[in-house]
Structures are given as structure tokens and as C-alpha cells.
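Protein in question reproduced for absentees:

***
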Amino acid sequence: MPRPSSLLAALSLGLMLATGAGLRTQAHVPVQGFEVVKTYPHDDGAFTEGLFFHDGHLYESTGLYPSFIRQIRLETGEVLRQRDLPTIYFGEGSTALNGRLYSLTWRNQIGFIWKLDDFTPLGGFSYTGEGWGMTNDGARLIMSDGTDQIRFLDPETLAETGRIRVTADGQPLDQINELEWVDGELLANIWQDSRIARIDPATGHVKAFIDLSSLVPSGPDIDPNDDVLNGIAWDAAGKRLFVTGKRWPQLFEIRLKPLG
């Protein structure tokens, strides 16, 4: 979820945990293990909303004000290029397709199109509801809006061409946030949850959860409600998977273990 948490959100989360609501969504879904391959620096001021890997570099979009999109040198965390959004926009997820970078905003119902190699503005598009996460499968843009729905968009017309409903153990799974397309399936962050969901893009069924709670940083400068897991990037050529979180000081390359 994009915004800093509120007291109401915290109370709602506590009530859900106390009553056992939401636990049904993980009852029969397997949990997949992982190992850390390598650790990289990450800007601990970046409120990460979107993350992807393209041609040897990371690209990141952030929320808060001002929000920005940036190109980053993976090994050092050096910012190679950055474009700030006008301060009326709270930035969200992003993805690259056909030489363009597409980025969402939270509640403005506006997305932006940028030239990928230099962030020159190319136009915009509109959508109903909120904008959260974004990725693509090579042919379609894929967008989340904080509900249990995932939308598919035509990258030329930006018209919606379909959607799926995400379910885990037969129950709706909402708060779907940052997205990444990985070898024919969707990986999705869940707002204020330290798990990543592996989603079948044809059915919306969650095939497994990846529990990354051991990577969540702690300390006096970490807000456990806001500085949460969010950000998945896939290097398709190198078969490398990267994860991070909002205002985390590190980005992790991880390797998934086979499901038992």
C-alpha cells in the first residue's frame, strides 16, 4: 500500500490478527524458502513503490512528496538519472516496455509515460480507482490497485483488456501491491506483509508464499508499519531475483529453494 499508515489502519490490522481473519488465506498455501545470494546498498530515503531491472541497471519509483523515478547502478546504489514528479502526485509502481517507462500515481487516477533512456515525458493515461503496482509480460501492462484485482492493459491504448481476482486457499487476497513478472508467473508484494505471493496469471490463484520476514530491518529508525517489504525486480537474462523495502538500507539478491 502506498501511504504511510494511519491509526485506523493499525487498529484494523490488529483486529484482523486478533480474530484470525485473513489467516485463512495461508492455511493450505505452501511456503517457499530462500537464501540470500548477495547484498547491495539501497537508498534508505527511498519510499519504494516500483522496482525493475533492465539492461544491467535497476529502476525505482517512489512515493511520498516529492516522488521520483530513477535509474540506479546496482552494485553501488549510485543514482544515474532521476526525474521528480510534480509535488501534487504520490508516485507508485512502474515498468518498462518497448522503450517506454510507465508509472502510476496513487489517488490521482493518472499514469505517466516516459522515454526509458532519458525520462523525457511522452504522455499520460487515466484509470479508475487507485494505482499501486505495475509490471508487464512482454505484451501487456499489468497493474494492481490495492484490492484483490489485477488488471491487464494494452500498452498502446492503455485500455483495460482483462483482469483476474487473486485468491489464496479459495479466499480473496487483497492489498496486492508491487508486481513483477517472473518466468510466466506474477510475484506480488502484499501491503504490510512480509510475504511475497506467487500468482498464476491465468487463474489468480496463489501457488506459494515466500516468507521474507527474516530480511526486515529493525532499529529506532525503522517504522514497522510503513518501512515494509516492497520492491521486486527480476533480471531475466541473469536469472537473478532482487527484493527490498520502503526506506530499507539494503537490497537483497535471493535464490528461491524448491518447494518441498
Remarks:
- Confidence is low (pLDDT under 50) at residues 6-26.
- Residues 7-19 form the longest helix (13 residues).
